[in-house]
C-alpha cells in the first residue's frame, strides 16, 4: 500500500514542525538577535519550500522568486502559517488515490529551470527537506543550551504508541 508511508511521513513532519515551533516560541527571547535572525531564516526557508511545492501540487502558479520570503515574517505569523500548510499536506496526501503518487507534475523552479517530479517525489522532498533544516535549527538551539524538540521517526512512533 503506497498511500500509508506518505501519510505517515507527512504526519511526522507535521508533528516535528509543531514541536520545533513550540520550543523556538518558548525560548525565542533567549536567542541573541543574530541567532534569532538565523532561526527565522531557517523556519521561513522550510515554510517557503513547503508553500512553493504546495502550489506545484495544486497546479497553481505562484509569484515566489526564491525559497525564502522577501520580508522576514514574525515568528508567530510564521508558526501559524506553517501549521496551516502542514495541515493542508496531511489532508492532501490522505485525499490521493494510490496511483496519484506516480502522476508527474510539471513546474518551474524559482531559478526558472523547468522540472518534472512525481507527486510522491514532491511529498518526499518536502518531508526530507524539512527534516534537514529542522536539524539546522536544532543545532542553533543546542549552541545556546536549549534542548530541541524530539523529531526522529522513532520519537514519533514512540509517542504515537502511548
From TrEMBL:
Keywords: Metal-binding. Gene3D superfamilies: dinb family like domain (1.20.120.450). It holds the Pfam family DinB. A divalent metal cation binds at residues 45, 129, 133. GO terms for molecular function: metal ion binding. PANTHER family: PROTEIN DINB, SLR1116 PROTEIN. Belongs to the DinB family. This is Damage-inducible protein DinB.
Amino acid at each position: 500500500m503506497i498511500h500509508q508511508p506518505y501519510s505517515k511521513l507527512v504526519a511526522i513532519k507535521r508533528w516535528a514542525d509543531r514541536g520545533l515551533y513550540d520550543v523556538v516560541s518558548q525560548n525565542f527571547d533567549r536567542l541573541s538577535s543574530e541567532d534569532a535572525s538565523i532561526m527565522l531564516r531557517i523556519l521561513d526557508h522550510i515554510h517557503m519550500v513547503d508553500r512553493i511545492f504546495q502550489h506545484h501540487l495544486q497546479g497553481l502558479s505562484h509569484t515566489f522568486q526564491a525559497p525564502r520570503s522577501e520580508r522576514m515574517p514574525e515568528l508567530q505569523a510564521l508558526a501559524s502559517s506553517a501549521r496551516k500548510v502542514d495541515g493542508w499536506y496531511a489532508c492532501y496526501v490522505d485525499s490521493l488515490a494510490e496511483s496519484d503518487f506516480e502522476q508527474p507534475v510539471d513546474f518551474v523552479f524559482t531559478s526558472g529551470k523547468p522540472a518534472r517530479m512525481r507527486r510522491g517525489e514532491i511529498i518526499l522532498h518536502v518531508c526530507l527537506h524539512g527534516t534537514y533544516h529542522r536539524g539546522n535549527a536544532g543545532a542553533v538551539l543546542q549552541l545556546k543550551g536549549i534542548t530541541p524538540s524530539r523529531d526522529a521517526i522513532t520519537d514519533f512512533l514512540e509517542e504515537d504508541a502511548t
